[in-house]
Amino acid sequence: MKVGMKMKVGKRLGAILLSVLLVFGVIACGKNEPKSSPSGSTGGDASKAASDTPSNTEKIKIIYSMWGSDEEGNTTQLVADKFNASQDRIEVKIMAIPWEEYQTKLNTMATAGQLPDTGLVQEGNVLDWAKEGILSDVSTMYEGTDSKPLDSLAFKNDGKTVAYSAANEILLMYYNKDMFDKANVPYPPASLDKAWTWDEFVDAAKKLTVDKNGKHPNEDGFDSQSIVQYGASIENLTWQLETWTLSNGGGYYSKDGNEVKVGDDASIEAIQKVADLYLKDHVAPLSVGQTDDGISRTLITGTVAMATNGAWNVGTSLNTARDGGLNYGVAVLPYMKEKVTINTGGANVVFSQTKHPKEAMEWIKWYAQEENSWGLIEAGIWMPTLDKWYKDESFTHKWVDNPNFPPYAEYKSAVVDFAQSSAARPAAWYYTAHTADFNTLLGSILGDVWTGKTTAKDAITKNLDALKAANKGNK
């Protein structure tokens, strides 16, 4: 895999967070404020609030690092200013570092004993850093409060929580309702109990795939080299691909994360089925699994009828596309043998070098609260981290019943309920170290599988020892 592509694989949450911060910052500045918030108020001008706060040189200084430009750092600082103005003990300063330099810069700072107090860490690196002693144990951070995030959002190292995701995200399926209507194909189900099997999914995709002469796959005269509309696209970015191995009864790892299972027959079969959507079924466009822009290059371009990806796409791309005329819906994922989706979310951590872990945790707790990130949730970019937003319908209505989302009943079933169902499983990086290296290697190994130059079985079998070494931190 090329270096540039490797960066994109790890940058999914980075790109989301950077666009998210712009939304959040605008709201914090009092511009384009949401019509309502969970508490019924819209907040105020954060910069003005900060200027009204008397100077206090005794405040404890907390540095929070993030990846982004100076402009994005300034935007986030406006959010921190709101926190600074809310109390007189702590002052948070934002340290913005360009994405390309972020990990190298933090490594250098760690060696010099100069890490910030707290900051963002990419999901795939959290447990690696924890095992190196770089992260603080935050297991007690929410003791005595009712704001502890869902257990599925806790990164755990040797049984100790070292980070919580700032938001909850799951994988689901999006689809173009107009394409389904035109083909007279029923919409994919929003309810988990009615989820399509893999065969039903492929069958629907064939009915929605059309070549330049109006032919479908398996029809006489169909030309797979002149397809003008594809029925489906499965996002095969490596970390998302794990979903299908789990669905087929396999997975990348054992449940405790100590054993690599991607070489098992069930895992290999699942990966080959995804590849065959392009190679044999002729219902999906070629995707080499190196970039996380699947919705933009499929559903939004108008070339694909249904595509899988994350819940964040509602806010990062689909709202704009809908304004441009896209009539889209949301559905639960199809399944092979077991009904599965995975949840994830970028990590806020407290670095072990801080002299002020208590204050750093206080900032993180504030920053992650729904009322302080309401613009992100209302926009459809973040999903809440607290259980009540999924199980108490009065809270769910405050979250979902707004113009940025698909119809309430549809979204609640396909996303809110799906996220709380037995199908939802935490992504491997919550409990397994070295996933960044493992995913990068696996993505490189599978490159020729997507194009049909080799099979999933041959590619994985030949490289299984290297994958097992990557899982143990041996490159």
UniProtKB/TrEMBL annotation:
Name of the protein: Sugar ABC transporter substrate-binding protein
Organism from which the protein derives: Candidatus Cohnella colombiensis
Q: Which InterPro entries match?
A: Bact_solute-bd_prot1, SBP
Under Pfam families, the record lists: SBP_bac_8
What CDD domains is this protein classified in? Answer: PBP2_TMBP_like (cd13585)
Q: Where are the residues of the annotated region Disordered? A: 34-54
Sorted alphabetically, the keyword list is:
Cell membrane, Lipoprotein, Membrane, Palmitate, Signal
